[in-house]
Structure to design on (224 residues):
């Protein structure tokens, strides 16, 4: 089973809203990732958690706040986003950082 | 720094014809190489990966790729295209920090 689930599938929010994206995997993977993907572009790495600790933050603005409550869950808290933050947000997981990454279906975010 | 080049942002083939998607990488050490596929409005699905076990790698859905060190290439092929193969294909290499370096992607168009 190589399933990563993400909720919600779609999200529309205003620039003053606070919302959260959720990612879950039950494969026992110890590395989890957030990516941002704009249309017709490859994914851009945002954050990496390894053994529930934030190991990489690719200079992401503070209006994006990741959280890893346990080894199966990864959240991305959103606050005061800008229209240019509209994109597909992908979660991925891997056995550890050296291993193959498996992606979820993504959350398509629209910021108005 | 490592990089990945995918030749052709769009590739169009007729149904039943050979599919060839090109990927060249730059790496100073033997790399891990991946092909992912992204169907419209979906996440990324792993097609296949090269991890130095064999130069010809077979993946899902009839795709395969051959690692050629002398040419620094990892081209993706499928003998006979199906309409269901229409998607965006991304080649990626794992860098020394185990992060994925992505190509720009190739959109595969299948003509009936």
């Amino acid at each position: 089973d190589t399933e990563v689930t993400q909720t919600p599938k779609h999200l529309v929010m205003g620039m003053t809203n606070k919302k959260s994206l959720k990612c879950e995997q039950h494969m026992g993977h110890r590395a989890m990732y957030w990516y941002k993907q704009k249309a017709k572009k490859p994914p851009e790495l945002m954050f990496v958690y390894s053994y529930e600790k934030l190991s990489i933050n690719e200079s992401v603005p503070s209006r994006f706040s990741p959280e890893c409550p346990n080894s199966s869950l990864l959240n991305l808290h959103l606050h005061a986003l800008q229209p240019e933050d509209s994109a597909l947000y992908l979660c991925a997981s891997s056995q550890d950082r050296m291993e193959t990454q498996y992606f979820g279906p993504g959350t398509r975010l629209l910021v108005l | 720094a490592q990089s990945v080049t995918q030749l052709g942002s769009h590739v169009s083939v007729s149904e039943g014809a050979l599919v060839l998607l090109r990927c060249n990488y730059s790496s100073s050490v033997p790399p891990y190489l991946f092909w992912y596929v992204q169907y419209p409005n979906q996440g990324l699905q792993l097609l296949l990966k090269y991890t130095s076990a064999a130069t010809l790698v077979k993946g899902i859905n009839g795709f395969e790729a051959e690692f050629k060190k002398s040419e620094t290439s990892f081209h993706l092929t499928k003998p006979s295209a199906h309409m269901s193969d229409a998607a965006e294909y991304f080649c990626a290499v794992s860098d020394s920090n185990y992060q994925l370096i992505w190509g720009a992607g190739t959109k595969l168009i299948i003509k009936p």
About this structure: Chain B is about 0% helix and 55% strand.
